[in-house]
């Protein structure tokens, strides 16, 4: 599924309506056997500028402000709860909650011209919610430098520090993203769903607990039809036929 942020005149800001649409698109028929991966991209030179600041002004009340951040949190955490991999295809600037969106995705492929920043500190609104995703994707000191200064990372710096998975030239962005997506689509959906859920679960656990939990998951994985099919196919040197 391709989800395209398509409000370039407003720098693809994550307004309340944009967040609602994104949530709906992510959840739509998510259990379908045909849905194997989701790619999030954007129209225009800016991937996403973060929240719509007009919605965070004094013209709106505290209740509205809370609603914006609550929905944004729901969307960001939803991405990691979905049973399929979510890939950010970034071609341009991703700032504040836009940078949070990239950090929240499972995989991120960026063009060389892309940049990533959390500049809220420069307008008196520290990027505290983006910092949650950023602090879990980047080394602490790199994340804090971004948060304290608002200075952007280049695509290559983002790659070096782990915010994105790959950096390619702009003309290769679509090709590289599709290459990853097609590779994912060749695997069993049930196995990927189990693996993704387990990965994020073990990341919050201590080492011993994580190994105990993942060892049991691997035993459970062997009981899945696709797990047995894959092993038998490997032993017999043939391609597996996934039940999905």
From TrEMBL:
GO terms for biological process: fatty acid metabolic process. Signal peptide: none annotated. It is found in: Mitochondrion. InterPro entries: ClpP/crotonase-like_dom_sf, Enoyl-CoA_hydra/iso, Enoyl-CoA_hydra_C, Mitochondrial_ECH-domain. It comes from the Eukaryota. Keywords: Fatty acid metabolism, Lipid metabolism, Mitochondrion, Transit peptide. Its main location: mitochondrion. The keyword Lipid biosynthesis does not apply. GO terms for cellular component: mitochondrion. NCBIfam families: PRK08139.1. Belongs to the enoyl-CoA hydratase/isomerase family. May play a role in fatty acid biosynthesis and insulin sensitivity. PANTHER family: ENOYL-COA HYDRATASE DOMAIN-CONTAINING PROTEIN 3, MITOCHONDRIAL, PTHR43602. This is Enoyl-CoA hydratase domain-containing protein 3, mitochondrial.
